């Protein structure tokens, strides 16, 4: 077969013969992610209304320094420079943010809807140059597994928050066991985040996917199968957990602001 | 029997144009039937590759209404016929004529990938033992019929023409099948990182979307390969852990 | 003579399916330079369509299996008119050829202890087919393709050979043209291996690819080689019948191997009523036993659905003719019923028969895990072909070898499922080995420019005629369609002398029309022109099939004569042999079969 001389004409941005609504999905993703980023940034900078009773907003957990009873090391250190804005969320939120930023699903999604690289399958692109993930800055995406290690710790912390959300302060200062709607919100949150985190592509590789003969290591094989099962729906877990973690913050914030009244179920 | 209009790209490397043809539509028809009908009735010389017409050989790749498809597996009942059906050649490769493209690049790329190198046989009779659980994954990749639709839709090739430093989804799947083969002992990670450009893939999953064999190209092949490259080149802690394990073994 | 590009190789392989690739690999390993010409792209040959598996007596699943049993099964399936030596070599060498594939990277399904899994198939006494789901052919061709490319075979893709070039009695090369630009190329070679596959496109309803036009049969015939057994054309019992666009598309025998049953419109499992005497002893007489067989019970006998293909196809035709067929003119093949027996039947079916599930779902709107399929016979395989020496695969023309479907002998009057993939491996390997040997022992011949000129002139003739200008000229497609229609109707599963005589008349008329065929456009990738050039092969093989079928006045295996419904003892000892006469007309003769040696006779007796 001969090699044909080829100098293809560059395709224009948005050029396609697809008659379907190919723009709908990137638009939805753009809207969804933008809304979340805007809200979470706003919420993170608030520095208040993030706890209510035994509940702590997942945006602020773990609270390393802070004014709420959940703070691990007490209030903001005196040495904190005054020109630097402080919020307990800013100390930790880079971890889940980094985990999601470097997540294989989100990468593909925001390259499409924010960078138009490509906007949709078989649709022309705005830029001629392309670096991919082969050179700086996107080569840094390979750090994903380190964010995974930290995100796994977060699952423990958030699970502990659910435990704490089971103990309410009584009128006489004693703590009593109870379940409020907020407890359930936080419990669902940790489940969804677990489903997302334990379905991570890097985790799938690390627990057994890296082995060619995984059947020779039964524990790894079992773990690999479990992670693979979650991984198959990674997109769904990603969106559900993203929505719910935002909703958890909204819920607690509204309770703390007195807009909403938390209902004790037990 | 109803009639539909097919708008087919006719031309060669120098250029071409769309031409409209009437097609008589009958039950169960696929796009390739329509093209064959046109060849017999209106355009004897309409160039198009096809062999098996059963979705097994991967020859009749083209773009139907803007999406890469096998013409033999695209039923007319699945596309709107109230407006012209647009049929074009693949865009990631040079056109030979009409719907036939020069896909020889793919064959040259495949030749660059290091071949299978098995370990020594497991049994005295020269045979090997492999568990079905371990070959399941490789068998998924080996379903590939080399239709090159994934290569066509991949924007790294289609829009950015990085044919010289990226092997494309098809050959990442091919590399994955070799790398994850339980018997294989070859190491293809250095060239995967460099010359074969796994890092150029930005996992936008169009390849998975168009695969007629439903191979989960991105999640099961490309991302695991990226992770293996991370193991080897980008993970200092993992590297240390590996050195420690090897030292302990010794 | 115009200056055509000339390409030199020691061995030229024509055809890039399993047999061609295996031959090329072997010849290349022997240290000679090898060129391979393929009509399509590499890796797209009809071998990719093979679904069921490769028959080889590996004895991984049933340790009672060995080459003797495989040999006896093959001979019984072929109604004992096989070339015994080929059947013997095939049975003995197939296991090694399969293991070799694994060493080259093929990934077969595994037994629980990690060896190559084997499945049941029609006519095979034990589970014998090494397989990969239902895409074994793809696995085989990909493995061979990768091996061959890395071994340094020169592949000439999309080149169509139109003439074998001869010097005296010997083949010294081939003339072809590349489809892309329509340029002629001369291939000079010391030995030529034909591995061009089958002839299915001579029929309207066929499971074969577009490219199965009998090129090898025709090239060999016109080069003076003998063809034998051309009357034996296998109709696969189960092809899709609906919708019309996919009519003929193969439904693998694996469906029946996994427990699928054939029923008529009354829901009756009709195959139990038609078990031939020579298979009675090894066929189940009740549904329960048949089911146990498909589930691996070694004590059970096989269900009648897994009788040989010729027989099952005829039984289906009878059901349809007698008015018990399905709505679209087939019968029902049901695998969904196994949910009565298996807990996770749906998953099981999808895992064991993924491409069947996919094919019916996507093309026929039928979910085979829930409803039965409609199936009917489809032209599938030709047992006949180039007459070759059993050991070396050399034809009656020195320097010309043939392997795979275009060669004849191994399958006799009917091929068993799974034997074609092992056939092409075993005899592809042998053809490659002996072609390389021949190339080493002989010098390259010289090209006869008159022959080249004549062939190129003939090939370009259609361009001289303008289809649109005058009513005298024919479009190539219409001639092809009329040929397919006629062969389907007159030389199909059930044959009669008067119909076949009409077919011969029809062929004469079609030949005349083919000489008037004209094409539009230019030589660059012009399918109209390619179709016009294929007509010569299609007409040649159609005539050979018809004449051979007329000559065999008996019913045996795939050949069923309505006017001679029984076997004939004398004809059972003879092959029908065809060659081109001095005057250019087709000569039909009979030739006695080679004598079966005593030790093999004994093997057959013991296995009866």
Structure description:
The complex is a heterotrimer of chains A (266), B (250) and C (608). Chain A is mostly helical and 266 residues long. By secondary structure, chain B is an alpha+beta fold. In chain B, strand 1 and strand 2 form a beta hairpin. In chain B, helix 6 packs across helix 9. With 608 residues, chain C is of the alpha/beta class. Helix content of chain C is 37%, strand content 17%. In chain C, strands 1, 2, 6, 7, 8, 9 and 16 form a seven-stranded mixed sheet that branches. In chain C, strands 17-15-10-20-21 form a five-stranded mixed sheet, covered by helices on one side. A four-stranded antiparallel sheet of chain C has the order 11-14-13-12, with helices on one face. In chain C, helix 1 runs parallel beside helix 12, helix 2 packs across helix 17 and helix 15 packs antiparallel against helix 16. The chains are: A mainly alpha (266), B alpha+beta (250), C alpha/beta (608). Chains in contact: A-B, A-C, B-C. Chains B and C meet through helix 1, helix 2 and helix 3 of B and helix 3, helix 4, helix 11, helix 14 and helix 16 of C.
Low-confidence runs of chain B: none
Mean pLDDT of chain C: 94
Domain unit count of chain B: 2
Number of strands of chain B: 7
User: What shape does the CA trace of chain C take?
Assistant: globular
Structural class of chain B: alpha+beta
Summarize the structure.
The complex is a heterotrimer of chains A (266), B (250) and C (608). With 266 residues, chain A is mainly alpha-helical.
Topology of this protein?
The complex is a heterotrimer of chains A (266), B (250) and C (608).
Chain A: H1 24-46, E1 51-52, E2 55-56, H2 88-92, H3 94-101, H4 104-113, H5 144-164, E3 167-169, E4 175-177, H6 181-197, H7 201-209, H8 218-231, H9 234-256
Antiparallel strand pairs in A: 1-2, 3-4
Chain B: E1 2-12, E2 15-25, H1 31-41, E3 61-64, E4 67-70, E5 85-88, E6 95-97, E7 100-101, H2 104-112, H3 132-141, H4 149-153, H5 155-158, H6 168-179, H7 189-193, H8 206-210, H9 217-233, H10 236-249
Parallel strand pairs in B: 1-5
Antiparallel strand pairs in B: 1-2, 3-4, 3-5, 6-7
Chain C: E1 5-14, H1 18-29, E2 34-37, E3 54-55, H2 67-77, H3 84-103, E4 118-119, E5 129-130, H4 136-151, E6 154-156, E7 159-167, E8 170-178, E9 184-194, H5 215-222, E10 227-228, E11 233-240, H6 254-257, E12 261-263, H7 277-280, H8 287-294, H9 309-321, E13 331-334, H10 345-352, H11 354-364, E14 373-382, E15 385-387, E16 400-402, E17 407-408, H12 419-441, H13 449-464, H14 476-490, E18 494-495, H15 497-514, H16 527-551, E19 560-561, E20 574-580, E21 586-592, H17 598-607
Helix pairs in contact in C: 1-4, 1-12, 2-3, 2-17, 3-12, 5-16, 10-11, 14-15, 14-16, 15-16
